[in-house]
Amino acid sequence: MAGAVPGRYRAQRKFHAENLRFKEDATLEVMTTFRRPDTLESQVLRAEGSKSIRERVFNKILEAENEIQSKSARGQVDIVPANYSFSYLGTAWWEYRTNVVGFFRSPWPAKPNSFPNADVHCCVQL
Q1: Please, are residues 99 and 120 in contact by the beta-carbon 8 Å criterion?
Q2: Pick from 3, 57, 103, 123: CA 20 to 30 A from residue 92's CA?
Q3: Virtual CA dihedral for 124, 85, 53, 114, nearest 10 degrees?
Q4: For the chain, which ranges sit under pLDDT 70?
Q5: Shortest CA distance to 86 belongs to which of 107, 106, 108, 104?
Q6: Residue 115's pLDDT is what?
């Protein structure tokens, strides 16, 4: 049916993180299913590498995704001007393209046992 909006989406995602200081890395693959209106479920398919990275990084990402399932919670983290400020730093040539370089800053305080409320640097390919 043309124009119909499906009520379910699935995505297989792969996370990879490294700690260069301790020479550790980890990989996590998950199958994430979204069902309308606010249900998000992630099933771990594969977990390898540093237990510390998996617990401190990947598990925190999945926990945060579960916490923001309601519409009111999502409104606080949507990437919109009311929630973040964006500072344009310039452009950079990378991977044969011009990229916009800047950073986002959230006005929300960091939660206990989470990453500090810091600038998130970004690079967007044009």
Answers
A1: no
A2: 57
A3: -170
A4: 1-6, 70-74, 77-79, 84, 103-126
A5: 104
A6: 47
Counting every residue written for the chain, the total comes to 126
What does the pLDDT read at residue 61? 86
Question: C-alpha distances in angstroms, 22 versus 49, 50, 73?
Answer: 13, 10, 35
Question: Helical H runs in 1-126?
Answer: 51-53, 59-67, 71-77
Q: Would you state the pLDDT for residue 116?
A: 46
| Residue 82 confidence (pLDDT) | 74
Alpha-carbon gap, residue 81 to 89, rounded angstroms: 17
Q: Which residues of 22-41 are buried (b: 16+ CB within 10 A; e: fewer)?
A: eeeebbbebeeebeeeeeee
